[in-house]
């Protein structure tokens, strides 16, 4: 297998800064380029003319990559014109973008919001719901440091309307907790239901400002009293203080014997952190040494991330025989930005710092079947894992809910303190299939390509993840034993959110910070720049 270069973007961050420093809207003082920044409808100058021309110039080096900033004196118009040219060159649906005068928009971010298609899919959803930007410093901090801040809780909200607003009574549960986070230290547990926040009634109360401030702290060091009811109905009040914590992609693993078979279980929550590679290698080494014959991969909360890491996991599941001379994914571009790229099943450890494959072999269990636990938060690189394995005829059994439907990706691109994410490719498996924009759906008897053999089962908040009696894992074990779905498999309904962004207003609404949605629930996998088998 050949490998030439890895995309160095490693993960995505939790929040974005909507503030772009500028010197005002007048461009005459700092205009560079001999009139090159003038807009003419339908005419697109090379993006290099405007690249790194910034209204506010950074000096020195990026503290996370040690790369010297390339910024040079420019204007807001330069920044907007770079966006226009870059997007026209690389956007997957560039011919569906209306060419509007950037002078009509006060900031590059405001202009970027309209540089996309506004078409709808056949189901009525936005064709492009994944177009966003983020402050580069925050992006670097998260991708290079694997750190976050807040409480460390992934929420599961129910009783939401189509706009994400709670209907009464409001229902909000703790779905997962980051180990070592403020929530873990304070004593929250999976399945806790929120009852009060700083004394304000969460279920039916009107004090939205207090509820938002207590549930979604905006800075570290904010302390709040949150009253919860556990799965047994007992109430308790927890004092929790927001703070920084490390993210743990692999949260639970287990190996046990069921129906005479050795079953391995792993909960994997994000492909966005390259450090997860070592955890996966360690766990799969254990699975191999324990002669695991059945495997359950829990991706119910995995919003996606690095396609390279997804490819590695697929190889560790399937092994040499199943993946030999097969492609994991092919990236389909717009025909002018890049040629289609083929991504193989990576069988080596990756040196993320230098962007290459090492000569260290990955462990593998070499199975012909895998069980994947899923939800509407199973997105992007997680869906690529399911689709990529199906592309080589591995028997993938999907247990849980319909996935979120993200067969698209991008290469995060920096310019003038902001990192931009625009859809640049779609992905297809070895059989050429990749149309699952409405998600991959578990069905006992699949009839369509986006339907996967499996069972629809609710997320069971009454049990810890990895507990053999937890609903989804229990259903997988039932299927392992009997080859069919349990008779009372429940309908899947809940929605999840993990944002740490405050929302103010009536009625109370699950936070809708755009970057947070894209990253945690709709994360789109970042590709390799050039890879060939």
TrEMBL record:
CDD domains: PDZ_canonical, Peptidase_S41_CPP_like. Residues 1-21 form the signal peptide. Keywords: Signal. PROSITE patterns: PDZ, PROKAR_LIPOPROTEIN. InterPro entries: ClpP/crotonase-like_dom_sf, PDZ, PDZ_6, PDZ_sf, Tail-specific_protease. Residues 136-205 form the PDZ domain. It comes from the Bacteria. Pfam families: PDZ_6 (PF17820), Peptidase_S41 (PF03572). This is S41 family peptidase. It comes from Pseudoalteromonas spongiae.
């Amino acid at each position: 297998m050949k490998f030439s270069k890895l995309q160095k973007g490693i993960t995505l961050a939790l929040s974005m800064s909507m503030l772009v420093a500028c010197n005002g809207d007048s461009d005459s003082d700092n205009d560079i380029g001999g009139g090159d920044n003038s807009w003419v409808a339908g005419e697109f100058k090379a993006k290099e003319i405007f690249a790194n021309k910034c209204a506010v110039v950074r000096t020195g080096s990026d503290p996370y990559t040690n790369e010297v900033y390339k910024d040079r004196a420019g204007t807001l118009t330069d920044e907007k014109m770079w966006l226009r040219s870059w997007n026209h060159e690389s956007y997957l649906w560039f011919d569906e973008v209306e060419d509007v005068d950037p002078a009509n928009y006060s900031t590059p971010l405001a202009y970027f919001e309209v540089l996309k298609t506004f078409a709808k899919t056949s189901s009525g959803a936005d064709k492009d719901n994944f177009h966003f930007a983020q402050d580069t410093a925050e992006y670097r901090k998260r991708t290079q440091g694997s750190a976050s801040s807040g409480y460390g809780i992934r929420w599961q909200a129910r009783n939401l309307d189509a706009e994400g607003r709670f209907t009464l009574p409001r229902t909000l549960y703790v779905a997962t907790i980051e180990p070592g986070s403020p929530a873990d230290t304070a004593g929250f547990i999976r399945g806790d239901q929120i009852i009060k926040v700083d004394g304000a009634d969460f279920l039916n109360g009107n004090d939205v400002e207090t509820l938002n401030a207590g549930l979604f702290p905006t800075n570290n060091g904010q302390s709040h009293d949150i009253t919860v009811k556990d799965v047994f109905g007992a109430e308790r009040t927890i004092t929790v203080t927001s703070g920084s914590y490390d993210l743990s992609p692999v949260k639970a693993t287990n190996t046990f014997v069921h129906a005479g078979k050795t079953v391995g279980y792993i909960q994997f929550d994000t492909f966005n952190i390259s450090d997860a590679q070592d955890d996966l290698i360690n766990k799969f080494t254990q699975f191999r040494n324990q002669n695991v014959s059945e495997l359950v991969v829990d991706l119910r909360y995995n919003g996606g991330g690095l396609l390279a890491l997804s490819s590695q996991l697929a190889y560790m599941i399937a092994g040499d025989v199943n993946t030999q001379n097969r492609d994991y994914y092919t990236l389909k571009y717009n025909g002018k930005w890049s040629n289609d790229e083929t991504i193989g099943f990576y069988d080596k450890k990756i040196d993320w710092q230098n962007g290459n494959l090492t000569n260290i072999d990955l462990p593998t269990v070499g199975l012909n079947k895998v069980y994947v636990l899923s939800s509407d938060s199973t997105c992007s690189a997680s869906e690529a894992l399911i689709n990529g394995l199906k592309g080589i005829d591995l028997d993938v059994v999907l247990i849980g809910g319909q996935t979120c439907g993200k067969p698209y990706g991008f290469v995060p691109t920096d310019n003038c303190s902001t990192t931009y994410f625009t859809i640049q490719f779609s992905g297809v498996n070895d059989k050429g299939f990749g149309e699952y924009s409405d998600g991959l759906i578990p069905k006992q008897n699949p009839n369509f390509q986006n339907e996967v053999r499996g069972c629809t089962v609710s997320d069971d908040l009454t049990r810890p993840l990895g507990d053999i009696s937890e609903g989804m894992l229990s259903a997988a074990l039932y299927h392992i034993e009997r080859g069919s779905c349990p008779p009372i498999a429940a309908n899947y309904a809940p929605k999840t959110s993990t944002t740490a962004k405050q929302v103010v207003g009536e009625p109370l609404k699950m936070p809708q910070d755009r970057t947070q949605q894209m990253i945690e629930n709709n994360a789109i996998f970042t590709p390799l720049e050039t890879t060939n088998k």
